[in-house]
Design goal:
Aminopeptidase; four-stranded antiparallel sheet; three-stranded antiparallel sheet
Length: 162
């Protein structure tokens, strides 16, 4: 998770994510972490949130991550700076809905985006999310309150894997 967190610790990502300082990887450690392949740390377990980590096959480097909060039926994700603006956000969100619908058994998955985050909104809509209702405002972990637009992705036949 340290490598995945490094992928979203730059100021551009944090504008949208607003993580608490203890989750943001210091700038002097980011390049070293992002140069590593995954799987070199301790297992990380979180029973409230599932993470899918995208890895570039050629280099073995982490591209980004997407988290799924099953209880709230919500997803959110990020890409490392070197992998942004390539259409990979669509792939991340597509993987998230496939996992949520066909492994976690969720019929509907929701995602919120800050209304000026065109990259996130574009990735969600290109992954098949459609606009839906939701709170007009969202408080980020760092306390900032941002205006939001909400999306959903549905399936008629959710399944679980056991």
């Amino acid at each position: 998770m340290a490598i995945a967190n490094a992928a979203a610790s730059d100021s551009v990502a944090q504008r949208w994510l607003g993580w608490l300082p203890e989750l943001v990887v210091p700038e002097n450690r980011r390049a070293t972490l992002l140069a590593k392949g995954p799987g070199r740390g301790l297992p990380w377990a979180n029973t409230e949130q599932w993470f899918l980590i995208a890895i570039e096959r050629a280099s073995g480097r982490i591209v980004g991550a997407v988290g799924i909060i099953k209880q709230r039926q919500e997803v959110g994700g990020w890409l490392a700076p070197a992998f942004r603006a390539r259409g990979l956000g669509r792939e991340l969100f597509h993987g998230a809905v496939t996992f949520a619908h066909h492994h976690l058994g969720l019929a509907t998955v929701r995602a919120g985006a800050e209304i000026t985050n065109s990259a996130s909104i574009g990735a969600l809509t290109s992954a098949g999310f459609i606009p839906t209702t939701g709170p007009d405002w969202h408080q980020l972990p760092d306390g900032r309150v941002v205006p939001t637009q909400w999306f959903r992705h549905d399936t008629e036949r959710p399944t679980t894997c056991r």
